[in-house]
Design brief:
By secondary structure, this protein is of the alpha+beta class. Helices cover 35% and strands 21% of the residues. It has helices at 7-23, 26-36, 45-57, 73-76, 101-109, 111-134, 141-156, 222-238, 245-256, 345-357, 365-370, 377-385, and strands at 86-88, 163-173, 176-178, 195-204, 207-216, 260-263, 266-269, 271-272, 278-281, 291-292, 308-316, 323-324, 330-333, 363-364, 389-392, 395-396, 403-412, 417-419. A divalent metal cation 1 binds at residues 199, 210, 407.
Length: 426
């Protein structure tokens, strides 16, 4: 278009440009000269300003977790705000809680506690993600447990009773449903046809995340694993403020026992293990008094606002009933035990070690070995005999059967239900 301008147009444009130049004040000229002129060190001032701006724009890249994970999670979240778990709304009569300003204010007052348990959950997610990537047939069970536990200690910045492992790493195999971890010297190797329940816990300031999943390499077991995964999610869905524990159990059993699994040509109905339960969780107390059944016919007791629950389900191809068997590895100091006079000097010394390192959190023999305790079995038995420490032997269904497990920790917040340990994996 510019090529088609007439001579008159060009002249008019030229005169306009002259008028504009004349209307510029001397002050403007001085400002421009100052802006573009050299500074004392010879560099143009405008260039210096640009450099300063660019420097301030540069932000530090957020810290990324290493592989394998080695950076404590509080360094990955310098703001101190940790990821929220999955949020589920309450149903029916409790729907009003979602928008209640009074209930929201209650949550704001609990922010510090929520952050503590979310930090523990983030450690659990990162550790289990890595462990799922490396667990293979042929691994020594004791090596697997120690890898997992050392990673938890590093990521959570283990600090006495303020932060650390909440209970021993359960890695129960096949018909063993729970409470098995290798003692020192155990040579058990994970096999391709094993069904392993990996159950471990983390805590910050006594706020415990209890979460478990099942590992099976042979796809033949997939329906068994799916049964417990679905049953656990059903339990989470049914749980809530004012929900009756018996109703949660009935819903879990209905889903669990709708599954069948074919193992080596034989079909089994998946059964809920009727004498294993989920449970409420308190500060430094893994079992806080309420049990969440996984079969119908449980207690009429209601769940209440502010409570933590471990919703866990066990599906079995056996009898669906467990009993204590095998060598004990899990122990825990009784929560309400008072002062008990002890005659055995070694028992007194061992109790001091337990109080200082575990308090009322569960521990195993390997943890005592790690602290330098030796020749402690008689002292440990003495503490058990006196009712100070409770042994928790492995819980087993019939030999030759297979048990699977999935578990999450939930918090019944005033406005909603938070599945604290939920991750991308399950």
């Amino acid at each position: 278009m510019q090529e088609n301008l007439t001579k008159d147009d060009k002249a008019a444009n030229s005169n306009s440009a002259v008028r504009t130049a004349q209307s510029s004040s001397p002050e403007d000229d001085d400002d421009e000269a100052h802006a573009d002129g050299p500074s004392q060190d010879g560099a143009p001032e405008a260039v210096k300003k640009k450099k300063k701006k660019n420097k301030s724009k540069k932000k530090k890249d957020p810290l990324q977790q290493t592989d394998p994970p080695s950076i404590p999670v509080d360094e990955l979240f310098p703001s101190g705000e940790f990821p929220e778990g999955e949020i589920q709304q309450y149903k029916d009569d409790n729907l009003w809680r979602t928008t209640s300003e009074e209930k929201r204010e209650l949550e704001r007052l609990q922010k510090s506690m929520y952050n503590s348990v979310r930090r523990a959950a983030e450690v659990h997610r990162q550790v289990r993600k890595y462990m799922r990537s490396i667990i293979k047939p042929g691994m020594l069970m004791i090596d697997m447990c120690e890898t997992l536990e050392n990673m938890v200690r590093k990521l959570i910045k283990e600090n006495g009773l303020q932060a650390g492992i909440a209970f021993p790493t359960g890695c129960s195999l096949n018909w063993v449903a729970a409470h098995w971890t290798p003692n020192a010297g155990d040579k058990t190797v994970l096999q391709y046809d094993d069904v392993m329940k990996l159950d471990f816990g983390t805590h910050i300031d006594g706020y415990i995340v209890d979460c478990a999943f099942t590992v099976a390499f042979n796809p033949m077991y997939d329906p068994l694993l799916q049964a417990t995964r679905d049953a656990t999610n059903t339990g989470i869905k049914e749980a809530g403020i004012d929900a009756r524990l018996c109703d949660v159990g009935a819903a879990i059993q209905e889903v669990m026992e709708s599954y069948e699994v074919e193992i080596n040509g034989k079909v089994f109905q998946v059964k809920s293990v009727r004498n294993l339960n989920g449970h409420s969780i308190g500060p430094y107390q893994i079992h806080a008094g309420k049990s969440v059944p996984i079969v119908k016919g449980g207690e009429q007791t209601k769940m209440e606002e502010g409570e933590f629950y471990a919703i866990e389900t066990f599906g079995s191809t056996g009898k669906g009933f467990v009993r204590e068997d095998l060598e004990c590895s899990h122990y825990m100091k009784n929560f309400d035990v008072g002062h008990v006079p002890l005659r055995l000097a070694k028992a007194k010394q061992l109790l001091g070690t337990i109080n200082n390192n575990f308090g009322t959190l569960a521990f195993c023999r390997r943890y005592l070995d790690r602290l330098g305790e030796t020749k402690y079995l008689m002292a440990l038995k003495n503490l058990c005999d006196n009712g100070i420490v409770q042994p928790y032997p492995p819980l087993c269904d019939v030999r030759g059967s297979y048990v699977s497990q999935f578990e999450h920790t939930i918090l019944l917040r005033p406005t909603c239900k938070e599945v604290i340990s939920r991750g991308d994996d399950y």
